[in-house]
User: Fold these one by one.
Assistant:
Number 1:
Amino acid sequence: MRTWCEIDLAALRHNARFMRRQPGCGSGLLAVVKANAYGHGLVPVARTLAKAGAGWLGTAHVDEALPLRTNGIGLPILLLSAALRGEVEEIVRQGFAFTWSDADELRHASRIARHLKKNARGFLKIDTGMGRLGCFSQQTSELLQLAHQLPGLECLGLSTHYAGADEDIRFARNQCRAFAPWTDSGLVYHTSNSAATLRSLNPHACFARVGLALYGCSPLPAFRDHLKPVLTWKARITTVRTFPKNWPISYGGTYRARSGERIAVVAVGYGDGLFRALTGRGYVLLAGRRCPIRGRVTMDQIMIDVSDVPTAQPGAVVTLIGRDGSEQIRAETMARWAGTIPYEIWTHIQSRVPRRFLGSR
Ligand SMILES: *Cc1c(COP(=O)(O)O)cnc(C)c1O
C-alpha cells in the first residue's frame, strides 16, 4: 500500500468505556457514526461500539443508517439531520428515529406512517442557541401536543444541541438554562455532544450523543490524556534525492533546497485528502524524527526533508497522524497547521486511502 489508515479498535473501546463512565453521559451512550464514522470506517466502528456498550447509534441521514442494518447491526438509530420528504417513507419502514423541528415535518411523518400502518418515531428538537435545527422554546408545548394528537407518531422525547460547549462555557450554560424547563417535564431528553458530556451539563439525560471523544480527540485539554487516538495515517517514501543549494521544490518553487538537503517524495497528497494548506507547514514522522514538509502539497505526492534521517529510503513508512517512537502527531495538531478542526481532517481522508482495522475481537 502507498498510503493507508490504521484504525485501532481497542483504543475505540477504551474511549467508549471512558465516555460511558462520565456523569455527563447520563443513562446511556449514543455513538455518533455519521460521515463514515468520522472517516474511520462505518461498519467496523459501529460494530465495535455496539459491543462496547453503546445503546444507540447516530448517523446524519437514512443512507448512512441502512448499511448498519444490512450488516446486521440492530441498535436503535437516530438520524441527526432533518429528513428530506423523499426519505421519510424509508425511515418509517426501517424504524429509524427522526429529529423533528416543526409542524410540517410532524404532519408529513404522520401521513406516511398511517399509509404504512407503522409508527414514525422521533425526538422533537428545541433550538436553544444553535441556530440550525429545532423549534423555539415557546413553540414546544404546542408541537408536543400536535405530536401526541397526530396518528402514527411516537414522540420519544426532546433534544437540543450545544453550539460551543468546548469554547464558550457561559454560552453553553445559557443554553442549558434555556432547556432546563423541559428537563423537569418528565419527558426523556438528550442534549450533549462530547464537550457538553465532559462538562457534565445534563447528567440526567437518557443518553449523550458522543462523536469526537470516541475517536480519541478531547474537546477539553483536561481529558486529553484519558482518550486514545484511534486513527493513524501512514504513507511510503517512493524516492529520495539530494539537492544543490536553491533547487526549487514542488509547484511554483515556493521552497528552495538548502545545500545538500535530502528530500524524500512520499506517496500521499491532497487527492488522498491531505490538506493542501499543509504546504510549507508542519511535519511528518520518520524513524522517530520530525521531517518538515517542503514546498506545495501536490495531488498524489509530498516532499519532506529527510536530511536528519540517514535511513530514509524508498519503501520506508512515514507517519502523517499517529505515533513514531517518542514523537506523536495528533489530528488536533495537523488541524492547527491546516487551519481547521480534527473533524475535517478525518472526514477529508478519501476512500482511496484504505482503512486497516486492528485490535478487533
Ligand atoms: C455530530 C453531532 C454530535 C457529536 O458531536 P461531537 O462533538 O463529535 O461529540 C452530537 N449531536 C449532533 C446533533 C451532531 O450532529
Number 2:
Amino acid sequence: MEKQNIEWGKLGFGYVKTDMRYVSNFKDGAWDEGCLTGDDKVVISECAGVLQYSQSVFEGLKAYTTEDGSIVCFRPDLNASRMADSARRLEMPAFPEDRFVDAVKQVVLANESWVPPYGSGATLYIRPYMFGSNPVIGVKPADEYQFRIFVTPVGPYFKGGAKPITIKIADYDRAAPRGTGHIKAGLNYAMSLHAIVEAHKQGFAENLYPDSATRTKVEETGGANIIFIKGNKFITVGSPTILPSITRRSLEYVAEKYLGLEVEERTVMLSELGDFEEAGLCGTAAVISPVGKIVDGDKEICFPSGMEKMGPTIQKLYDTLTGIQMGRIEAPEGWIYKIK
Ligand SMILES: *Cc1c(COP(=O)(O)O)cnc(C)c1O
C-alpha cells in the first residue's frame, strides 16, 4: 500500500479531505445497510432537525500503525456504547454498536494510504457523528437521521515535547445538574466557544469548569477530563455531569494494574487543588496534556511539577498508555482492535 505523500510530522490538528467516508440513513424506524462513499458533501433540508435544534452527537477516536506494522484502533467498542448513550439522551435512535465498530474498520481500510506510519507521531483521527436530517419546525425529535464517519490525518499533538499549560477556572458554566454534560454532543461545544475565545485572549490554554450548582467542585475542561497526582494516589473526578473519557478510564486501569498507584475517582473540591503535586488533562487527541498552573480569580495554584515538563508520575502514565496503544507494552484483553 503506497502511502500519501505527506510530511506526517508537520501535520497539525486540522481537516484534510481523504478518499472515503461511511454513511447510513435512518428512516421509517430502521437504519439502512450503510455504505462507503467518495462524496464528502452532506445534502439535507434547510429545515433539518440538526440545523434548527442542534440534534447531533459525535465521537472521536484514532487509528494508527503499531510497532509491528498493524493498523489498529483503541477501544472502539467504548466509543460505540458512549455514542449510543449520547443519542438516547437527545431522543435519537442509537446506531447499533457492532455496526459502529465495523463501520470504523471499513472507513479506515478504505483510507489505508492516509494512516500515518509508525513512529511519525501522527495518527488517523476518526470522527463518527449523527444528526437529525428531516425537516423539523415544531420542537420535537427528528424522524430521520444520518450517521456518518470521516477520517482525517492529524499530526503529533505535541511537537517538540509536552510543555505544561496554564488554565483558568472558567467564568462560565458548562453543564447543568441533570443536563447534558455527560454526553458527547455539539451543543456542549457550541456554548463553550465564547468562554474559550475569551480565555485564549487572556492567555490561558483552557477553561476548567467548576460544577454549575455550587461552583465549589472541579469538573472538567471544555474537551478533556482532569487528573491529579498526590503521593501514590491517582485522583480523578467522579461526577455525573462530566463526559466519561475513555482515556481517563483507561488511565485509571493503567495506574492501578501497571503502576501500582492507588486510584480515587471522587468529588474534587476547588479548595484542595493546592494539595496536588501534578495535574493533567486527558483525552484522545493528546492522551495527557500536563497542567502546570491553574488560575482561580486572583489566586494561582502552581503545581510542584513546574512549567518545564510533565511531572514524573504523569509521565509514567503517559508512557505506559501510549506504549500499550502502540504495541510496545502488552495491552489488557480487548483494548487493541486490529483493523489490519
Ligand atoms: C471527548 C471528550 C473528552 C475526552 O474523552 P476521550 O474518550 O478520552 O477522548 C473529555 N471531555 C469532553 C467534554 C469531551 O467531549
Number 3:
Amino acid sequence: MSRGDHNWNSKFVLLNGLKSDSGKFSSSCKGVHVGKRHMWFHKNVRSIAYIFVLVGFFFLLDSLMVSIFDSINLQHSSTSKNSKGLKDDGKVAHTNKEKPPVKMYGRLLSLASSALTEKEFKPKKSDLWKEPYKQASSWKPCADRRPPNPGKHDKSNGYIMVSANGGLNQQRVAICNAVAVASLLNATLLLPRFLYSNVWKDPSQFGDIYQEEYFISVLKHEVNIVKELPPRLKSIDIEAIGSLITDADIAKEAKPIDYVRKVLPILLRNGVVHFLGYGNRLGFDPLPSKLQRLRCKCNFHALKFAPKIQEAASLLVRRIRKHDSARSMLDKQLLGNYMPNIPSRHHEVARGSYRYLALHLRFEEDMVAYSQCDFGGGESERKELQSYREIHFPLLIERLKSSKPISPEELRKLGRCPLTPEEAALLLSALGFKHGTYIYLAGSQIYGANSRMQAFTSLYPNLVTKETLLTPSELEPFRNFSSQLAALDFIACATADVFAMTDSGSQLSSLVSGFRTYYGNGQAPTLRPNKKRLATILSENSTIRWNDFEDRVRKMIEEGQRVRVRGFGRSIYRQPRSPECMCRT
Ligand SMILES: *[C@@H]1O[C@H](CO)[C@@H](O)[C@H](O)[C@H]1NC(C)=O
Ligand SMILES: *[C@@H]1O[C@H](CO)[C@@H](O)[C@H](O)[C@H]1NC(C)=O
Ligand SMILES: *[C@@H]1O[C@H](CO)[C@@H](O)[C@H](O)[C@H]1NC(C)=O
C-alpha cells in the first residue's frame, strides 16, 4: 500500500498541473474576438469536445483518488466511549458519518496549493528537516551515569504499591514519579500496576508493555524493585489499615516534604502504602537533584518497550523508510535489536532511505468538544459537540453553568482551540514541506473524518498510519490493547525525521518531544506551534500574502525550537535539557 502511494502522488501532481493548464486554456479563449468566434467554434468543435471529455475525465479521476486516499487514511469503525476526562495517547472515540468537507481557509488553501505546485518544479534548498539551532547538539544524554553516592538505603521503610490510571503516557509519568518517591522514602517499590479503565479498555500490565527485568536491573543501584509483596503483606486489606492513598489525599505536583509528612508515617506504621490513581502527583521543582536525575533515568533508560512492541514498531518504521538499519540513537533506544545496526557512512544511509514526518494531530472528538471552540462546521456541528459534552463531560457542563461564558472567538484568540487538520496542513506547507512528503499520522481518529481530512489530503496525500503500514494479521495481536497501539505511535513519532505536534499540552506529544531532545543529538527537530500566535496569524486569513504567512509561521516554529535549559517547574520528561538529566559538552 505504502509503495503504491508514491506513484499515486506523482499522478496527483500531474493532474493538478493539468487542471491549472485547462484554466489557462479557457481564459485565453475569452480573448478571441466575438465576431470570429462562431467560425472558429465550428472548425474546432471536435477538439473542444475532446478537451471537455478529457478534462471531465481527469476531474473524475481526481475526485476518485481523493476518496481512495481518504478511505485508506480513515478506515476506522465508529466507537463510542464513556469518558470521564480527556483521553490522550492515540485512541479516541470517533464518529464516521459522511459530511460535506469543512474548510475554514479556502483562500489560504488555494495559495498553499499553488505554492506547493511551484515547489515541485522549482525546489528551493531548505533546512526543514534539520534543527535550526546548533547548540541543540551540545546536550548529551547522561542520566545513566552512576552517581558517586547512589544513596540506596539498605534498610527499607516498607513497600510502595502503585496503580496508575490513564493511558500509556500518563502511566509512564506515574511510574517514574513512583520510582522517585520510593527513593525519597527509602522504600521498596512493587512493580507498578495499571488500572483498567472504561475509557481505554486495555487490560495490559507492566510486562505487556515494558521489559520488567530490564527495568528492575537498570534501577537496582537506586531503588529496590520487586515483583511481589512478601507473604505477610499479601493478604492484608490495604484500605482497612489506612494505607490506601488516592489522588484526593495528595495534591497535584506535591513536594517531597508532603510525602515525608503524609505518607512516610503510614509507611512506617503499616509497612506498605498503595497509591491509587497517581498521575502528576510529584512536582518538578524544588526537588533534590538526586531524585530529579532518577526520574530522568527511569523515563529515558529504564523503560524499554517489550520485544513484541519493538518488533512491530520496527516493521512500521522500516516500511516507511524503505530501509532496514538503524540510523540514530533514537532507533537503537526504542527499537532495540529489531533494527539491525549496520555500520555505514552517513551519506549512504541517507541515500537509501525515505524521510518522513510524523504528525500527532490531536483533533479527536473529545478534544474538539472539550475546547468549546467553533470549527466552521455550522449549526449541526455545534449541536453534535454540545451533545457530546452533555454525555461525556457532565462536570464541564456544571462548571459552565456557573461561570461567565467565553465566546468561541475569544477562545480562539487565546490559543485554546486545537488545530484542525486544515490548519496543520497550512502550517506544513508554509514551512515548505513538499506535496509528496511522507506523513505518518499518529492517533488518527479524526473528528469529522473525511470531511475534515480532505483539506489535509489535498495538500498532503502521502499519509500513512499504523493501520495502512501493517497488515491486519500483523496488527491483530494489538487490536484490543489501546496502550500497546499507542506505544507503536510513540515509537513511530519519536524516530521520525521530523515530528510535528498540534497540541503541546498532550502527553504523547510532550513525551515524544522529550525523547527526541534526549536521544536526538540535536538532529531530531520537533515542530511545536504556538496556538495563540497562530490564531493571530490566521485571523488575517482573508488578506495576508502567502510570503508573509510563510515568514510568520516559520518564525513562530523556530521560536519553539530555541535551545533552552528547562525552566523552573517544567517537566523534565518533556524538557530534559537540565543538568540533572543531560550534560552540556
Ligand atoms: C533514607 O536514608 C538516608 C540514608 O541513606 C537517610 O539520610 C534519610 O533520612 C532516609 N530517609 C527516610 C525518609 O527514611
Ligand atoms: C479482541 O476482542 C474481540 C471482542 O471483544 C475478540 O473477539 C477478539 O478475539 C479479541 N482479539 C484479541 C487478539 O484478543
Ligand atoms: C478569517 O478571516 C476572516 C475575515 O477577516 C475573519 O472574519 C475570520 O475570523 C478569520 N478566521 C479565523 C479562524 O481566524
Number 4:
Amino acid sequence: MIDLQKITRPNIWRLKPYSCARNEFHGTASVYLDANESPYDTPYNRYPDPLQLRVKKAISEVKGVACDSIFLGNGSDEPIDLLYRAFCEPQKDNVVAIEPTYGMYHVCADINDVEYRTVNLDENFQMSADKLLSACDEHTKLIWMCSPNNPSGNSLNRNEILKVIKNFDGIVVLDEAYIDFSSVPDILPQLPEFPNLVVLQTFSKAWASAAVRLGMAFASPEIVAILTKIKYPYNINVLTQRHALSVLENNNQLQQRVAEILEQRVLLGQRLQKLPFVEKIYPSDANFLLVKVTDANEIYQMLIEKGIVVRNRTTVTLCANCMRFTVGTREENDLLCQTLLAYAEKIKKR
Ligand SMILES: *Cc1c(COP(=O)(O)O)cnc(C)c1O
C-alpha cells in the first residue's frame, strides 16, 4: 500500500481547486447565464465539459476501466508534467527512469527542477527491476517505464515491470503509447491491484489522432482526483472531445489500420534486412523499427535530400548508428526502400 498523502507535495494535498461554473452546476438546464459566455451559437460559444464525462464513458467501455480511474490530458505530455507537479518537490525529490526512453520524461523533470536518474537497459533493451529499484532512495517519487519502449520498440519483460510496481512505495508510471501494436496485452486489467500504478496511453498513435492532442492516464480514483485538481479547468477542448467520441465509435477502423501497419512492419523489416549497410533490426512491438546501420548520419542526410524524414537516434544511449523508421503506408515504405536500395548501389561503386 502507498500512503498518498505522504508522497504528494503538501501544497498540492492542501490545494482547493478553482471551481468553474460548469463544476458547480451539474445536469441540464434550458438557460445558461452562469459562465459569462456569449449566448450566440457560433457553435463554439459554450465552455466544454471540464470532466469530459461522455468521452470517459466511451473510453471506459473500450478499455474496461471505470470512469473515475481515467484522466484525460492535452496529449500524454500533460499527465507527464502533472505527475511531477503533484508529487515532486523541486530541488529535493528525484525520479528514476529506464534509459534510453521517451525524451519528455527528462524534459519535464528539468522544467520542474527535479533530479532525473537514469538506469541503462541491457544490450537487448531489457530492464532489470533490481537495478531500477537500487537507483531509488527516500526522495524518489516516480519511476518511469515505457513498454513497448521508444526508441527501441521492444516490450519490457512483464515480470520485471510487476516486480518494480510491487516493490516501490512511490508512483510507478508505465507508458503504453504503442500498446495497440503489441503482441503483449496492456496492463489495465491489473490496475485495481496496484494503487501506485499510472498507465499512460494516447490517441496519437494507433488511434491516428495526434493532431487533436488527447492523452489518457489510468490510475486509482485517488490519483486521478489529484491530477484533476491541478489541471487547467477546460484542458480538453470541445473539438477534441467530439473527435474522440467519433473515433471511439468507429473502433473497427482502428483494428483494420493496426493490422495493415503490422503487416507493413514485417515487410519493411524483410526488405531492410537485405541492405548491405543494415547491421541489425531490433525486434519491434510498435509502429516503428529501430535499425542499426554502418553510418546513420550519412544515411539520414541522404534521405533528407530525397525528401524522406526519419529519426536519427545515433546520439542516444545504446543507439550508436541507429535510425528509427516509422512504418508508413505501403507506398511510403516502398519509396523508403527504393531510395535506400539506390543508395546501396551507389556506395557499392565507390
Ligand atoms: C508518441 C509517444 C507518446 C504520445 O504523446 P502525446 O503527447 O500523447 O502525443 C507518449 N509516450 C511515448 C513513449 C511516445 O512515443
